[in-house]
Write a structure and sequence with these properties.
Blueprint lengths: L9 H15 L6 E5 L4 H16 L4 E7 L6 H14 L3 E6 L8 H18 L4 E4 L4 H14 L12 E4 L2 E4 L7 H10 L16 H17 L3 H30 E4 L2 E5 H6 L2 H16 L5 H12 L7 E3 L2 E6 L2 E6 L1
Parallel strand pairs: 1-2, 1-4, 2-3, 4-6
Antiparallel strand pairs: 5-6, 7-8, 8-11, 9-10, 10-11
Pfam families: ATP_bind_3, TilS
GO molecular function: ATP binding; tRNA(Ile)-lysidine synthase activity
EC number: 6.3.4.19
Length: 331
């Protein structure tokens, strides 16, 4: 008689490995809060967490956020909850009110992450894990490219980020969407296809359904992987720049009345890329505002093309050259 154990499906194995690696780098006492929508990506993630968390002696919880934006949203949430319980996960279903600030996608995202953070904070220490895949990363990079806001918009999503003091982890950023579906099928898990994911009113859907397939057809396979690699490389470059700025900024910045001042000579001595990053960093750190490239260049001209021009109005602040300093003050 053949006593061999049945082989594990490669898709299931890949996702479990990704989750295992992500959990290994986290606080060993942290509860794992899984953002579960009922879609294939988050369901495959939930199944992997349900398998890996007990082996790492961790508590795990699936949080299903019902946005109430579709007629059947309560039934979808209930079905996802039932599936999660069948996997052995504790479950919380949270109904949220979605506003309209920033548009429907942004408002729903804000409400969702607010609910996830609240649930995680109640179980601190805790980490939130989401099912974003390599395909999501590629779409994010292309959308950033369309915005044209520089390298920062091409960095995509970080594998680990911070959500108001709670670690937000994306274990599946190296996993293709087709793999999550294969993993669900192999484990007999039925997923829900959100109709918004095929609604071409949304830019992300158009990128997913039209732009990426066209690029693959015209340029060749591997576009999504190449875009994801680009995001990783740019994120590494940005981290290096941040270290350089941290080392530089202490020597060239000093307090000013109602703001902060930066040495003109020190800014002029730096390469343009670093100079622009320092300007953006100072405004973001001091006034919690983001500058466009045009605004950044206008401030930089106070250093590189000084002709006696007056103050520059910026979001939440004003920049002016005063002697040998650029003073950035509240307005």
């Amino acid at each position: 008689m053949d006593e061999r154990r049945p082989s594990l499906h490669p898709a299931v194995a890949e996702i479990r490995r990704a989750v295992r690696a992500a959990l290994a780098d986290l606080d060993p006492k942290a509860t794992v809060v899984v953002a579960l929508s009922g879609g294939a990506d988050s369901l495959a993630l939930a199944a992997a967490v349900a398998f890996e968390a007990p082996r790492a002696r961790r508590d795990a919880l699936a949080v299903i956020v019902d946005h109430g934006l579709q007629e059947a949203s309560a039934a979808v949430a209930a079905s996802a909850a039932e599936t999660a319980r069948g996997l052995g996960l504790a479950v919380r279903v949270v109904r949220v009110d979605v506003g309209d600030e920033g548009g429907p996608e942004a408002a729903a995202r804000s409400a969702r992450y607010g609910a996830l953070r609240t649930e995680a904070a109640e179980r601190a220490p805790a980490v939130i894990v989401t099912g974003h895949t390599l395909d999501d990363q590629a779409e994010t990079v292309l959308l950033g490219l369309a915005r044209g806001s520089g390298a920062a918009s091409l960095q995509g999503m970080a594998a680990v980020s911070d959500l108001d003091g709670i670690p937000l982890v994306r274990p599946l950023l190296d996993v293709r969407r087709e793999t999550t579906r294969a993993a669900c099928t192999a484990q007999g898990l039925s997923w829900w296809d959100d109709p918004h994911n095929t609604d071409d009113r949304f830019a992300r859907v158009r990128v997913r359904e039209r732009v990426l397939p066209a690029l693959e057809a015209e340029i060749g396979p591997g576009i999504a992987e190449a875009l994801a690699r680009t995001a990783t490389q740019l994120r590494e470059d940005a981290a290096a720049f941040d270290e350089m700025i941290a080392e530089t900024i202490e020597d060239i910045v000093e307090p000013a009345e109602a703001g902060i001042a930066v040495s003109v000579a020190a800014l002029a001595a730096n390469p343009a890329a670093l100079r622009h990053r320092i300007i953006r960093h100072v405004v973001a750190a001091e006034f919690h505002q983001s500058l466009t490239r045009a605004q950044t260049l206008e401030v930089a001209r106070l250093v590189t093309h000084w002709t006696g021009q007056g103050p520059i109005d910026l979001p939440g602040c004003r920049a002016a050259r005063v002697g040998g300093r650029i003073e950035i003050t509240a307005r």
